[in-house]
C-alpha cells in the first residue's frame, strides 16, 4: 500500500511541472517507438528475396483497396446479383440487431428500476418484455451467422470459378509452373488462399459495417441522454488508442501471407511423399524425407512463434487501451449526468428518486458497453483488415499472373539477353504435314538448344529421333504442341486432333478403366463416335491387356490406376489410348521403355498398319527398323535429318 502511495506521489510529482509533463510525454513516446521497432523489426526478413515486391503485402493502403475492389467486382458482379441481395439482407439484419440492442438497453434499465423501487408489477412486465425480445434477437443473431457463412461460400465459389476459368484456359495451367516463376504453388493459391480470402471478406463486412452502424446509432441515443460529450469522449479515446495501435502494430498481413506460403511448402512435402511413395520406398528415402518434412515444419513453427510473440505484445497493449482504459473512460461518461456541468438540471428533473437515476445508469451503461464494444471491434478489425490485405495481394498476384500468361507474357530468371525475353515470334501454319523451317529450340531458362531446325514429316515419314540426354528432343514436341513459345521460323502442323502424344510416364486420371483409354474423351463423346466397350476390348487385345478388363471388374471399375498398375501396364494403356484416338501422327516419347522388345515391336507394327505416322524418341536402337527417317541431334546445337537407306 505504502509502495502504491509512493508511486502515486512520484507520478503526481512528475506531471506537476511543465518540464516534467514534457518528460512524461517524451517517455511515453519513447516506449511507443520502442514497441514499434520491436514489432516491426523482422518485417523485411519475412519479405525474403522478393523484398521490394512483398513489403507492402498485408499493408492497408490505397493499393490494397484498389486490389480489393478489383477482386470484389469478381465476387459481387452487379447490384442485381444474388450476392448484392445477400449483402443488402445482411445490412438490414445488422440494423435490426442494433435497434433490438437499444430497445433491450431500455428494458434492462426498467428491470433494475423495478427492483430498486420494489415494484413487482413493473418488474414482471419488464421481464416479459425481455422474453419477447429474446425471440427476434436470437433469430436475427442466428440469421447473421448463417448469412456470413453463406456469403463466404458464395464468394469462394465465384472466385474459384473465375480463377479456374483463367487457369484452365489454353495452356495456362502448364505455363504457370513451367514457363513462369512468379508463383511457386498455384494449387495453394487456388484452394486455401481463395477459401481464407472469402471467409475473411465475408466476416469483415459484418465486423466493419456492424460496429460503424452501432457507433452511429448508440452515439445518437447516448447523446440524447447524456449530451454529446459522452459519446465524443469515448470515441476520442478509441481514436487515440487506434492510432497508437496502428503505429506499433506489426505487419500482420505480411506475416499471414508468409505463413500461407510456408504451409504450402509443407503440404507439398507431404504430397510428394504420397505421390512418389514407391520410388522413395525403393530408395529407402524415408530419413531424407523426414528431414525435409521436419525442416519445413520447423520453418512454420518458428514463424508461428514469431507471430505469437508479436500477438502477445499487441494483445497486452490492446487490452490495456481498448479494454481497461476504455472502462475508466466509460465510468467517467456514466458519471456525467450527476457530476458533469448539467448535474443540477439533471438532479432537479429526476428529484430524489434513486430508482430513476439507477434506471438511467443501467440504460446508459448498457448503451455505453455496446458503443465501447462496437468501437473496440472496429479497432481490432484492423488486424482482420491486414489479414484480408495479405490474402488479397496473394489472389491479385495470381490473377495478374494468369492474365499475363493468357496474353503470352512470362517472367522468370534467365540468361541475360535471352531470346525467351524477346517478343519476336515465329508463326504456325496449318498443314497436313509436320514441318519445321528455321526454328530455334530455346528452353525456358533461355538456353538455345538448337539454333535453326528444319525438317519435313509427311504422312508415312516414320521418323526416329535420336540424341543425348537434354539435347532438346522432347522440347521439339513442346514447340510443336505450342507449350513453349515459338521465337522464330515457321512450324507447319496439322490440327491437334491429328497428333497424339504419349510420354514415358503417361497420365492416368482418377476414374474408370474406360476413362484411362478414352481420355480426354467423355463417355458421351465415345458413344457419339459409335465406339462400344467391345471395340475397346479389341484394342486392349492389341496391347495384350485384355485380361485386365475381367481381372479388375470391367470397364466401369474405378481405381487409382497410377498406384495399381505396373510401369509396363501403364505404358500399354497409353498405347491403347493412342489406338482409340487413331491420330494421323503419333509422337512416342520413350513410351515403350518399360515394355518388352517383342511386345513393343508388335504394337509398333500395328500402329503402322493402322496408317499412323510414327515420330519416335527412343534410346533403343531396336525400334529404328520401324522408321524410314532419322532426326539426329548432337547435343551441341547441331542436327541431321536423313532417310534410312534400306
Ligand atoms: N520447364 C523447363 N524449364 C527449364 N528448362 C527446361 C524445362 N524443361 C526442359 N528444360 C531443359 O531443356 C533441355 C532439353 O530438355 P528435353 O526434355 O527436351 O531433353 P531430351 O532431349 O528430351 O532429353 P532426354 O533424352 O533426357 O529425355 C534440358 O536441358 C532441360 O533441362
Can you give a write-up of this model?
This protein has 24 helices and twelve strands. A six-stranded mixed β-sheet has the order 6-9-10-4-11-12, sandwiched between helices. A four-stranded mixed β-sheet has the order 1-5-2-3. The chain is elongated. With 646 residues, the chain is α/β, with parallel strands linked by helices. The structure holds adenosine-5'-triphosphate. Keywords: ATP-binding, Membrane, Nucleotide-binding, Transmembrane, Transmembrane helix, Transport. It is found in: Peroxisome membrane. Residues 434-644 form the ABC transporter domain.
Helix percentage range: 55-70%
CATH homologous superfamily label of the largest domain: ABC transporter type 1, transmembrane domain
Provide the low-confidence segments as ranges.
46-55
- Given the C-alpha coordinates, what overall shape results? elongated
**Beta-strand fraction estimate:** 5-15%
- Bound ligand species: adenosine-5'-triphosphate
Radius of gyration: 36 Å
CATH topology of the largest domain: ABC transporter transmembrane region fold
How many structural domains are formed by the residues?
A: 3
Major sheet strand order: 6-9-10-4-11-12
How far the N terminus sits from the C terminus, by CA atoms, comes to 110 Å
- What structural category do the secondary elements indicate? alpha/beta
Number of strand elements:
12
If helices are DSSP runs of H or I spanning 4 or more residues, what is the number of helices?
Answer: 24
- What is the mean predicted local confidence, pLDDT? 84
Which CATH C-level class of the largest domain is it? Answer: Mainly Alpha
Which second-level CATH architecture of the largest domain applies?
Up-down Bundle
Which sheet architecture does the biggest sheet show? 6 strands, mixed
Domain ABC transporter: 434-644
Transmembrane segments: 21-38, 85-107, 127-147
Protein name: ABC transporter domain-containing protein
Keywords: ATP-binding, Membrane, Nucleotide-binding, Transmembrane, Transmembrane helix, Transport
